[in-house]
Amino acid sequence: KAGVTQTPRYLIKTRGQQVTLSCSPISGHRSVSWYQQTPGQGLQFLFEYFSETQRNKGNFPGRFSGRQFSNSRSEMNVSTLELGDSALYLCASSLGRQGGNTEAFFGQGTRLTVV
Amino acid sequence: AQSVTQLDSQVPVFEEAPVELRCNYSSSVSVYLFWYVQYPNQGLQLLLKYLSGSTLVESINGFEAEFNKSQTSFHLRKPSVHISDTAEYFCAVRDLKLVFGTGTRLLVSP
After folding, report:
1. Do A103 and B34 touch (CB under 8 A)?
2. d(CA A49, CA A56)
3. pLDDT tens, chain A, 115 aa long
4. What residue in B sits closest to A58 (Cα-Cα)?
5. Chain centroid to CA A98: how far?
6. Structure confidence at residue B24 (pLDDT)
7. Is there a contact between B21 and B11 (Cβ–Cβ < 8 Å)?
8. CB pair distance less than 8 Å for B30 and A99
9. Minimal Cβ distance to A100: which of B90, B94, B102
10. Is B52 part of the contact surface with chain A (CB cutoff 8 Å)?
11. Which of B102, B96, B101, B104 minimizes the C-alpha distance to B28?
12. Is residue A21 within 8 angstroms of chain B, CB to CB?
């Protein structure tokens, strides 16, 4: 069974631009979560989508947004990029049971560099 | 809110030596705990999990972790490490989302 697929793997953008990252979850998984990983802040939760609805949200500014499609694929968008947005963005998919007893599987991430 | 503490940012060890990576979590009624491993330029791979049942959980590559409710710990151990175990290890607790520790870099040298 195919794993979580994130595209693209690498991106270089200029300050002020916007970017869209894509995540295809494992077949049958309905929950997609996004995390930002930086050396200074570690792994931080951005948001989670389940059945096309945002179910949970972390403490990120409104420049960070996402959506989920009917096939469970998800996109994350960052507008007005800042240098501090340079990070590895990880997507995780899970079955999506609301309780905690469900494991999440991660993609290889998208490395975003803002110059 | 849940939190996870990994006190050791880096653990150097010689090949074939035992290792323990420490993880403590904030107490909660229901606890679901995970260890993930990250190799350079890769995503996170699930190493092992505690959801319920036996407090000792094992992975297929020789790692094990023990859920200790009284000490709120979920330390990761391996009796004999290999060079290939060099990676960053993250402990995580889950309620509505995964909350990660800051990670421990395991450095295995020959």
Report:
1. yes
2. 7
3. 679 999 999 999 999 999 999 999 999 999 999 999 999 899 999 999 999 999 999 999 999 999 999 999 999 999 999 999 999 999 999 987 665 567 899 999 999 999 9
4. B97
5. 19
6. 95
7. yes
8. yes
9. B94
10. yes
11. B96
12. no
Dist. CA A46–CA A61, nearest whole Å: 10
| Degrees to nearest 5, angle at CA B5 with A86 and B45 | 60
B105 near A CB under 8 A: no
Q: Which residues of chain B have pLDDT under 70?
A: 29
Measured CA distances, B42 to A64, A71, B67 (Å):
23, 25, 27
φ and ψ at residue B104, rounded to 5 degrees: -130, 125
Beta pairing partners, A65:
A77
- Asked whether the beta carbons of A62 and A75 are under 8 A apart, the reply is no
DSSP class of residue A25 equals P
What pLDDT was estimated at residue B6? 96
What is the end-to-end Cα distance of chain B in Å, rounded? 41
Q: Which residue of A has its CA nearest to B28?
A: A100
CA geometry: angle A36, A37, A38, nearest 5 deg: 120
Amino acid found at A112: L
One-letter amino acid for residue A103 of the chain: E
Contacts of B30 in chain A (CB under 8 A): 99-100
**A83: closest CA of chain B, how far (Å):** 20
In chain B, helix, strand, coil percent, each to 5?
A: 5, 50, 45
Cβ pair A33:B45 closer than 8 A: no
